[in-house]
Prior knowledge:
Blueprint: H1 12-42, H2 48-51, H3 57-92, H4 97-112, H5 115-128, H6 135-161, H7 164-172, H8 177-192, H9 194-207, H10 220-230, H11 235-268
Helix pairs in contact: 3-4, 3-6, 3-9, 3-10, 4-6, 5-6, 6-8, 6-9, 7-8, 9-11, 10-11
Amino acid sequence: xxxxxxxxxxxxxxxxxxxxxxxxxxxxxxxxxxxxxxxxxxxxxxxxxxxxxxxxxxxxxxxxxxxxxxxxxxxxxxxxxxxxxxxxxxxxxxxxxxxxxxxxxxxxxxxxxxxxxxxxxxxxxxxxxxxxxxxxxxxxxxxxxxxxxxxxxxxxxxxxxxxxxxxxxxxxxxxxxxxxxxxxxxxxxxxxxxxxxxxxxxxxxxxxxxxxxxxxxxxxxxxxxxxxxxxxxxxxxxxxxxxxxxxxxxxxxxxxxxxxxxxxxxxxxxxxxxxxxxxxxxxxxx
Length: 286
């Protein structure tokens, strides 16, 4: 897959200007960091007393339990969205308007609704419909509705990015349209879109922090808040540890996505197709 630059390479003067801008940016960032660290130090953020509670094993157990609940909700939500997203992608590719149009409406609607509103819907409306679920399932359903719409579009994009010869060969071998989709096209599309699917997992995992508004789900953010309420001098420290935990997991998932991307290019000599690389007709724009 060939790539082209969207701009001309800078000349000597442009490179000097870019280096100067980069140096100024680093100086500004260093100055901001100095002001922040100095302010935190004045407020006692680095005092030993503020960090003393974290010498207790029970504090880390509570934070670990909250993080485990975030991971549990993210994994279940992503598995459900993968399952239903495959069916949604198949519907988006259907030649029947009665199937394709409702799937497109579902995709556009739930792609455009913020996850927080979906969470309010599941936690407030579903109980009024006679579904008194736990906060865990309210969170999972909200995440799954949003992520299913994304995964469905990714599956559609992955199938359309495959060579036309794949479906033609399947038809020549006597496969029906459904068999061709589920046995030949879908496995290849999922492999092609695997970096984007892992990146979607990052979004789902970050979305689990919205469980804080439910009040009854003990996630990492709530566990850090509870610790901060019990140890009044350690609220900022607990929130900082929670932020670092989220950051490390998201970085790890991003590295996995990059590794899969490199592996696909090394194995097949092509780059997995991202959703925004398709043109209006669903074919690759290159």
